[in-house]
Amino acid sequence: MAGFDIIPKAAKTRPSPYKVSVPEERVVELKQLLKLSRIGPPTYENLHAEPLHGKFGLTREWLLNAKKEWETFDWRLVEDELNSFPNYMLKIGQTDLHFLALFSEKPDAVPLLLLHGWPGSILEFLPLLSLMKEQYSPKDLPFNLIVPSLPGYSFSSGPPLDRNFTMLEVAELLNSLMVELGFGETGYVAQGGDIGSRLSRLLGAKHEGCKAVHLNFCIVPRPENISMESLSDAERAGAERGMAFVVNENAYAKEQASRPATIGLVLSTNPLALLAWIGEKFLEWTDETPPLSEILASVSLYWLTDTCPRAIYPYRESYGPDPTHHGTPSLYINKPLGYSYFPYDVYPVPVSWVATTGKLCWSKIHTKGGHFAALEQPKAIKEDLESFIAQVWKRELDSV
């Protein structure tokens, strides 16, 4: 990684290098808990994962097999992969923000902030970072890529314990991170899916430093002036599936929103409970079933860093008494907005709907890919970002 770790000269604060290294006792404890954990008895529901009416969740067989593989899973290989990229820690206010970065030596490299969601993590962007390292050297890398662990996730510190903590505050921390790294003058592009898409929108709508936004997830109710009949067959099918998801398949989100203390404690008690809760999402929200090792890496990261109870705070805001969404007028993005449509996302919103939420100037409809787009389709995300930024950075940003 020589060269990709050269901090920009314009940085106001130099971040501290960081090495991912979970204490051995935590890893040993995980193995012990897995060995002692039992799996519930067979039931009609857990024996019939493809039910007659609606989904029942995970099969008992899947959890048995996953438990067996997790017991011999080598967490240190995940650490090695993370440490193959420059890792940093920077204190912003009272929050210690961990982030991965690929810094460029090009003076005009575009700062690009990549934001994950739940139950994602920085692991989502490793394939994209690998593609960048393979194609470019530090001298010709066209981007400064910054991939933070959101507050409460993995190695970043969690929200304060004595007061409420909002998504707007998270966006302010992320904007401050980019300013401290020296991108306050040039500005930056924000990209995200899931919760990362909400944060990218907040950055674009509320912070002058964010000059453009690219999303691969954009929940918005159907605009009154756009009929379902006006959509293509593919977009109509996606919108109908998304609306069905909101009605029938978001019980997990309402639980995390209405009883975050309870579910956080439950999922912190037993690693198998966490595996079932998160593993289900990776199986159901992806286009193609991901390798089990990929799911275990993500769940291990969550378990070993106590991420889950610290990271579900955004759900209270999204499903609270006065929720906001991408179509909320105050979150309109009057800056270049790009959108990548992946058909097997939980709610693949039609391009015409997204266009009502901001100055949409670039979009692409893909024929494969799901909710974890950067993980599932890193080449597509890379090409989309390169195309979007090439279109807007020089021409449209000058007029913002």
TrEMBL record:
The keyword Cell inner membrane does not apply. GO terms for molecular function: epoxide hydrolase activity. GO terms for biological process: epoxide metabolic process. Residues 16-125 form the Epoxide hydrolase N-terminal domain. The active site is at D194, Y315, H371. It comes from the Eukaryota. Keywords: Hydrolase. PANTHER family: EPOXIDE HYDROLASE 1-RELATED, HYDROLASE, PUTATIVE (AFU_ORTHOLOGUE AFUA_3G08960)-RELATED. Belongs to the peptidase S33 family. This is Epoxide hydrolase N-terminal domain-containing protein.
